[in-house]
Write a structure and sequence with these properties.
Shape: globular
CATH topology of the largest domain: Thrombin, subunit H
CATH architecture of the largest domain: Beta Barrel
Mean pLDDT: 82
Number of helices: 12
Number of domains: 4
CATH class of the largest domain: Mainly Beta
Largest sheet: 7 strands, antiparallel
Length: about 475
C-alpha cells in the first residue's frame, strides 16, 4: 500500500512540473510574427535550389516551340583505311575506304528549309541527312561554311512549310540570364536542358578571334549545332563545344552568338562566302600593371594598339601606335575578343564609332571597315599566304604561312608535295606574317640560298634550300 502511494505521489509531482514548464515556456512567451518582405521573396524565387518556387520562370512554351525547330544531322563520309605495304607489295591489295557516320544537331531558320549547324558536324561529308522532329528525313546540301566561327548552312527541300526559330539579339544577353539548350545528345531525340549565361565574349582560340557565349546548361556530344534560346524562345546562340577532357558535359559549354551566326548566314546567302571586315590593328589588353608602366594608370580599361597594318582602315583614320581604344559603338573594349566580337558582326564598308585615348586626351573617330583578306608575298618562286585562325587550329600551330602557288616552274615536279604545305621557318627563324618575311629578305643576300622548313599535308617536315 505504501508502495502504491509513493508511485502516485511521484506521478502527481511530475504532472505539476510539466504544467509549470508549459506555462513558463509557452504561455509566458510573446509571439513573434515574421513577415517575409518582397525583396526577400524575390531573392528566394530566383535561387537555383532543388525546390522550385511557385513563381519560378516557366520554360515550357520556349521549350515546346524550340524542339520542333531542332533537327538531327547525320554526316556520312568515307575514311581512307590505313594501307599495309606488305599486302600492297606482294598481293597488290589496297584497302577500300571505310564508311563513317557522324551525328549532330541543327536549327531550322526559315520555313523553306534553311538549317544552321556547326562546321565540324558536317566536315568531310560525302552525304548529309536531316531528320525533323516528326521523323521525316531529307537529303541536305551544303550552302556554305565559316570554319573560323564553326558555322555551316544547309538546305533541304521539305514537303510542307516548316516551323522555324526566330533570331534574338545576342548583344543584349545578361550574365545570369536563364537559357535552355536543345539538341540531340548521344544520338537521342530532342532533349532540353536549362541553365544560365555564365560568361560573354569567351575566347577559346589561340588567335583570340572567336567570341563565345558560355553557359552551364548541360550540352553533351550530339548537341553540337543545336539551339541555345532565351525564355522567350529566341535563338541567342548555336551550341558548338564542350570544354572537357572526356568530351562530355562537366559544368560549362559554349555557343556561337546569334548575331554572329545571322551575319554569316546572310553573307552566305547574298555573296556565297563570308564577308569578313577588318580594322587593321593588333595589340593587348590594358591591365592595371601595364597601365602603370605606360603611365596611364587613370585609364581603367582599354585595348592598347601595338601595331597597325599598313594602309589599313585604322591607319587611314588617324589611329596611331600607342592609342588606347576604350569603346566601339558605345560598347566597352577591354580585350581583343571584345573588339573582335563587334567586328565579327560587321561587313566591309560598314562604319564604326571608335573612342580612344591619346596622351591622356579622350578622342573619337568614325572608321569605315575594310575587307579582311589574307596577305600574300612571293618568296623565291613560292607564293605564300598568311594563315587565318581556323587554319592554325586545323594544323595545330600558331605560326607559319601556306604555299598557295608555284611561281617558279622549277618547283613543278614537286607540286603535289609543296602546294598546301606550311612554311614554318626561314634560316631557322619562325615566320608568321608577311612583314617578318620582308624583313628577313631585306637582310639576306639575294645570291645566297636560304633554308626553309615546311610541314606537308601529312604532318611531315621537309627542309629545302631555295
Amino acid at each position: 500500500m505504501k508502495k502504491i502511494l509513493g508511485v502516485f505521489l511521484i506521478c502527481l509531482l511530475s504532472g505539476s512540473m510539466t504544467l509549470v514548464g508549459y506555462k513558463y515556456f509557452f504561455e509566458n512567451r510573446s509571439t513573434v510574427d515574421i513577415e517575409l518582405s518582397n525583396t526577400d521573396a524575390n531573392h528566394l524565387s530566383n535561387t537555383r535550389s532543388g525546390i522550385v518556387p511557385s513563381s519560378a520562370i516557366d520554360f515550357t512554351q520556349a521549350a515546346e516551340n524550340t524542339v520542333n525547330t531542332v533537327v538531327h544531322v547525320k554526316n556520312l563520309s568515307n575514311v581512307s583505311a590505313r594501307s599495309n605495304p606488305i599486302m600492297e607489295l606482294f598481293y597488290g591489295y589496297k584497302p577500300e575506304p571505310k564508311p563513317q557516320i557522324g551525328t549532330g544537331s541543327g536549327v531550322i531558320i526559315t520555313e523553306d528549309g534553311y538549317i544552321v549547324t556547326n562546321n565540324h558536324v558536317i566536315a568531310n561529308a560525302s552525304e548529309l541527312e536531316v531528320t525533323l522532329s516528326n521523323n521525316e528525313t531529307y537529303k541536305a546540301r551544303l550552302i556554305g561554311t565559316d570554319k573560323e566561327m564553326d558555322i555551316a548552312l544547309l538546305k533541304i527541300e521539305p514537303k510542307n512549310k516548316l516551323s522555324y526559330i526566330v533570331f534574338g539579339d545576342s548583344d543584349n544577353i545578361q550574365l545570369g540570364e536563364w537559357v535552355i539548350a536543345v539538341g540531340n545528345p548521344y544520338n537521342l531525340t530532342s532533349t532540353v536542358t536549362a541553365g544560365i549565361i555564365s560568361a560573354k565574349a569567351r575566347n577559346l582560340s589561340k588567335a583570340g578571334i572567336q567570341s563565345f557565349i558560355q553557359t552551364d546548361a548541360a550540352i553533351n556530344p550530339g548537341n553540337s549545332g543545336g539551339a541555345l534560346v532565351n525564355t522567350r524562345g529566341e535563338l541567342i546562340g548555336i551550341n558548338t563545344m564542350i570544354s572537357s577532357n572526356t568530351g562530355a558535359y562537366v559544368g560549362y559549354a559554349f555557343a556561337v552568338p546569334s548575331n554572329v551566326t545571322r551575319k554569316i548566314v546572310e553573307d552566305l546567302l547574298e555573296y556565297g562566302n563570308v564577308q569578313n571586315a577588318s580594322l587593321g590593328v593588333s595589340g593587348f589588353e590594358l591591365t592595371p600593371q601595364i597601365a602603370k608602366e605606360l603611365n596611364v594608370a587613370d585609364i581603367p580599361y582599354g585595348f592598347y594598339i601595338q601595331e597597325l597594318v599598313g594602309n589599313s582602315p585604322a591607319q587611314q583614320s588617324g589611329l596611331r601606335q600607342g592609342d588606347i581604344i576604350t569603346k566601339i559603338n558605345n560598347k566597352d573594349i577591354k580585350t581583343f575578343v571584345d573588339l573582335r566580337s563587334i567586328i565579327n558582326t560587321k561587313r566591309p564598308n560598314d562604319k564604326i564609332e571608335v573612342e580612344y585615348v591619346r596622351d591622356n586626351k579622350s578622342l573619337a573617330t568614325t572608321i569605315t571597315l575594310g575587307k579582311n583578306e589574307p596577305r600574300k608575298i612571293e618568296l623565291r618562286g613560292l607564293e605564300l599566304q598568311e594563315l587565318d585562325a581556323a587554319e592554325k587550329e586545323e594544323w595545330n600551330i600558331n605560326y607559319g604561312l601556306k604555299i598557295t602557288k608555284l611561281i617558279n616552274s622549277d618547283f613543278d615536279k614537286y607540286k603535289d608535295e609543296l602546294l598546301g604545305s606550311i612554311l614554318l621557318s626561314i634560316n631557322d627563324i619562325k615566320v608568321e606574317n608577311v612583314n617578318q618575311i620582308k624583313n628577313i629578305l631585306n637582310q639576306s643576300n639575294q645570291k645566297q640560298k636560304i633554308k626553309v622548313t615546311l610541314m606537308n599535308k601529312n604532318g611531315e617536315y621537309l627542309r629545302l634550300l631555295i
